[in-house]
Design a protein that fits this description.
The structure is a single chain. Among the domains are: 5-45, no CATH class; 176-265, TolA/TonB C-terminal domain, CATH 3.30.2420. Helices cover 27% and strands 16% of the residues. The protein has helices at residues 25-59, 81-84, 154-161, 165-172, 195-199, 230-241, and strands spanning 5-7, 14-16, 179-180, 186-187, 204-212, 218-225, 244-245, 248-250, 253-255, 257-265. The chain has a four-stranded mixed β-sheet. The longest helix is centred in the first third of the chain and has 35 residues, at 25-59. It is rod-shaped and about 200 Å long.
Length: 269
């Protein structure tokens, strides 16, 4: 009979019998048991790690991302320190009311009125011409005054009746001095109303003294009483100079004479 041999291996001892029966069951089962133990240990360790991770994740709550808010900042300057604390109010003494200034009323502003240029009217004023004194004629025989044979107007007859003896004697002597009479037999021309005077509402009466010669022509005229407006006076003078008169007669003889005639300017005409 053979002796049993004891074999040693790095892991577990394996007994081999000399009887030829080798028991490999133990050799095969022990490494398998090690593998199962190692796998179980690895599984248990992994399970522990997983559980530990779950526990750690459960303890730390998830933090939500906070929304970003944009805040507009405005720089405000601080008030001065003096205005922060108001000074104590000091009672003011009532001041006497100031005397009211006496203001004069505003003077009215006179706007210049634009007047159209008035037409320049030349007044034709002729001075009485000095006629030379005729030479002394021989004394004529006294002749009785003949009755008036000319068709003189009633005004002229009245003026002749009122003539003084001295005037009749002067006419007989050939005195050329014009006779101042109250009225002459004249046809006064209608005066031309100046357009500017009509627009300016100018009216009035101008008194013009005229002189007629022995032929009844108006040889001189001038204004003795103004109407108040130079344009109307000039128009009246032109109208009188353009008039015609009958010769003034004394004792049947034509002599120069003067008279005053009114020239009326009326806007209603």
């Amino acid at each position: 009979m053979s002796k049993p041999l004891s074999l040693t291996s790095p892991g577990l001892p394996v007994q081999v019998r000399h009887d030829g029966q080798k028991q490999y069951a133990q050799l095969n089962q022990r490494p398998r048991q090690k593998r199962h133990i190692v796998g179980a240990a690895v599984f248990v360790g992994a399970l522990h790690v997983a559980l530990l991770g779950l526990v750690m994740s459960a303890r730390e709550p998830q933090r939500e991302a906070m929304p970003v808010r944009v805040v507009a900042a405005e720089l405000i300057t601080s008030a001065p320190a003096a205005s922060a604390m108001p000074a104590p109010a000091v009672p003011l003494r009532p001041q006497p009311p100031a005397p009211a200034r006496q203001t004069s009323a505003p003077r009215p502003v006179v706007q210049p009125v634009a007047h159209a240029a008035a037409p320049v009217v030349h007044q034709r004023v002729t001075e009485p011409q000095q006629q030379p004194l005729p030479a002394a004629a021989p004394a004529a025989p006294a002749v009785a005054p003949a009755p008036p044979t000319s068709s003189a107007s009633s005004a002229s007859s009245a003026q002749q009746a009122d003539a003084s003896p001295a005037a009749a004697q002067a006419a007989a002597d050939g005195d050329p001095t014009p006779r101042a009479v109250a009225q002459l037999d004249c046809t006064i021309a209608k005066p031309a109303y100046p357009m500017l005077s009509r627009r300016s509402r100018e009216s009035g009466t101008a008194l013009v003294q005229l002189r007629v010669d022995v032929k009844g022509h108006v040889d001189a005229a001038h204004v003795v009483a103004s109407s108040g407006y130079p344009r109307l006076d000039a128009a009246a003078l032109d109208a009188v100079l353009a008039s015609a008169c009958a010769p003034y007669r004394e004792h049947g003889k034509a002599v120069p004479a003067t008279a005053k005639v009114p020239v009326v300017f009326n806007l209603s005409e």
